[in-house]
Amino acid sequence: MKKMFKQSLALASLAAVATAAFAGITDTPHNLTTSGGSNSVNSQTNTGQICVFCHTPHASNTNATAPLWNKKLPTATAYSTYSTQNSSTIDGQVLTVGSVSAACLSCHDGTQAMDNLVNAPGSGGYNATGSDRGYTWTGPASSVGGKIGDSTRVANLGQDLRNDHPIGIAYCGGGLSASVTDSASCNDKDFKSIATKSINGKPVFWIDTSTADSVRSKTDIILYTRDFTAGTERPSVECASCHDPHVGKTTTGGAAPDVNFMRVTTTGSKICLACHTK
Known about the structure:
Blueprint lengths: L1 H25 L53 E2 L17 H10 L7 E4 L6 E7 L27 E2 L7 E2 L24 E5 L2 E6 L13 E8 L2 E7 L1 H4 L27 H4 L5
């Protein structure tokens, strides 16, 4: 009896975690169904599935770094990125758009509809290269063929990223050994040192935003592993370094962070000062 009681508690705990995780994305603008409010697709005639606009459990786009990605990726060379042309003091190499940032931009560059899916809900909805599903949209997307907003909305970044924070850039925080990064060309003391460890035989990197605890958390600044001229498997700043796509300001009035999808609050510029020593 005692064993069964413990198992019931464990199952209840797992259910609570699952519910909390689901509630996190449900109450943000990344819920593109009618339950997401003004940022929604009309699920009465299309779908009520929230996760499907980004992820699929089967037949995902294997070219994407993001897990089980359900969208066609943009062409990396189509973008103009923030680089040494914008700032002569940039130390880190800037790569073409890739990693998790390519997944973010598959919606946020405004070039394809948000219902352009590889594997649509239901049976027989698979298209290896992705295709528009003809969903009915409400709100800002209704006038632009289901694409994200319009040119007046910051959420639509376009493909000219020269006025946006650099992505695909080697993080040049000081204090790393030459075995991790090129200390001669990418060891800038104007940036915080990073934490690193090996997971499954691969190096991972992050910046602790509170007390250093040797644990990479969702509320830390996440640095993604990419290959640079200075060496392979180096820390890179990507869209999801600062943004967590699964949590953010609510659309229905509940408690929320002050700015959509930020890993660290913008209050007092804490998101900036998590990396920059100014």
